[in-house]
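Dear V.,

Thank you for sending over the compound details. I've combined the ligand you provided, adenosine-5'-triphosphate, with the protein sequence from our construct and run the structure prediction for the complex. I'm sharing the raw inputs here so there's no ambiguity about protonation or stereochemistry in the SMILES, which I know was a concern on your side last time.
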Amino acid sequence: MARSGMNTSGIDLAPVPEKKKLSKESFQRGLRIFRFTLPYRGKFIIGLLLLAFSTSTFLAFPWVAGKLVDAANHKPVSLPGGLVLDIDRIALLLFCIIVLQGLFSFGRIWFFTQVSEFTVRDIRRGLYQKFMHLPIPYFETHRVGEINSRITTDVAQIQDAFSLTLAELFRQVATLLFSIGAIMMVSIKLSLFMLATFPLIVGLVFLFGRNIRALSRTTQDELAKTNIIVAETLQAINTVKAFTNEGFEVDRYNFSLNRAVKAALRGNMYRGAFVSFVIIGLLGGIILVLWRGATLVSSAGPDHLEIGQLVSFIIYTGFVGASVGGLGELYGKVQSTLGASERILEILDEPTEPTHRPRVAGRAPLEIRGDIDYQNVAFRYPTRPDMAVLKDISFDIQAGEKIALVGPSGAGKSTIVQLLMQFYELSGGKILIDGRPISQYDLTELRGHIGIVPQETLLFGGSIRENIAYGKTNATDEEIVQAARKANAWQFIESFPEGLDTLVGERGIKLSGGQRQRVAIARAILKNPAILILDEATSSLDSESEKLVQQAMDELMQNRTSIIIAHRLSTIRKADKILVIDGGRIVEQGTHEVLAHNENGLYANLLKLQFELS
Ligand SMILES: Nc1ncnc2c1ncn2[C@@H]1O[C@H](COP(=O)(O)OP(=O)(O)OP(=O)(O)O)[C@@H](O)[C@H]1O
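Below is the predicted structure of the protein with adenosine-5'-triphosphate bound, written out as structure tokens.
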């Protein structure tokens, strides 16, 4: 009953799923997960029938085996039609039963696993689709690891339930009921004796097993900690070496390993004790029943038993024990499955972003000129409602203008542009695009007209081609090359032996910072948005790379409304208007020439700090 998982040689590190107390309510809620099996109900029903057949043949086995023993004891079975079953015939019957059971079991597994695989695929797809459409604040309150475990561990629990747990539950209950019925038919007296002793022992064994499982969990946790050390230090190996902390880390790992071993050894001692308890307890119980049974076999009175009957009895007793123990374990599984399914259903019930709002302008594709108007915009992050990040921001941009946002770190510049993308709901005021509040546009359509070149470009792990085409997934090769040329990226792409098919590595690490930026610019050029958001990198590139990126940006900004979170003087100079942000407000605005001459202004001071000193 205790699962393995006590050793330290690489065990399943999946987080231990939370269990829910079984209540009628949680049961009903959890059962809603069954709606995912509805499309496969035909297969499910066939599986259930096959399960019923295989359980019946399994249960018939001890009965017939008992008859074989009786036949060996010169007491062949006479059937109603005058047919007498001798040893050979009974053995043949037994063989047929086993073959049938094998076939039924195969069918049962085949159908149930199909149901569980398809169901689980549908649940995963549903969850992922949900994740893609949840609003940004959801991801700020839930950690990636947690979200990940919903789609892996929790779903795996459900998979287990559909492929194994349900079938087991059915089988164990049927076995228990049938076995008790069968032994009652053999001998009520012996049955009562058995039922008074055996289930008690099995119950004790089960409880003991449960405690052992808690210990094995401690071992797993300790082992997980050692693995965290490995993962962390390998990821930051440069830092470890730069601080010459190799020895320190080895010691830390060793210490952690020893703790894991200690936990494992303690667990294994209990496991050893458990095994001897099982042997002595369970087999002792069987001996008790055997002893009583043997007494009845040797007695001549009304309680007399045939040897074959005793054999059947003992096997059914084994079945009773196994199903009592099995049901105990299944109870735990049902609990954690219900917990998992509740967590999954909770996510599926989360409200998604209102992406497809009713269109104001009818069916024609949305056209955006690019006028932007912020009116008294106020904002607090939903995760930090006490802090007013933006207070009364008002400005407007005519289509095609370039404005630069400057200001100290944490002033609220990125927040201003994120609100344009509607990653968050405003706390006050409104934002208009082409004279209409952004909340009235179809979100997907509107975002389709806004391009972003972020400060740190995170590429996806595929090829350069795939990464550029992310701006327009159906782009032709010609369009991709064209965009790469405009973004000053074609030169380096061409120099790679594999050209556009060059793999960029995880998050794009195989490209230099400047190259990554140019890929991001090419992506934005391909998207061809009416409104562009540029978040300039703070880290400076070398002057050659800088020039290439700058040219690419200039190309990209042509004929678009651009908002630039600017860190470079050259960019700022070219801006039609500069907004100086501080503490969530616009404290100055105007052109570079005007602002730079306002000696006491924040802008002039920032200029001194940022540019003249460097
Ligand atoms: N997702 C978030 N949740 C809660 N608070 C946030 C979040 N993002 C930013 N903030 C807070 O909002 C404030 C403004 O941040 P923002 O990123 O807009 O500043 P910024 O002017 O762009 O700074 P920088 O130039 O350093 O990027 C900061 O105090 C920051 O801590």
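A first observation: The mean pLDDT is 83.

Warm regards,
I. M.
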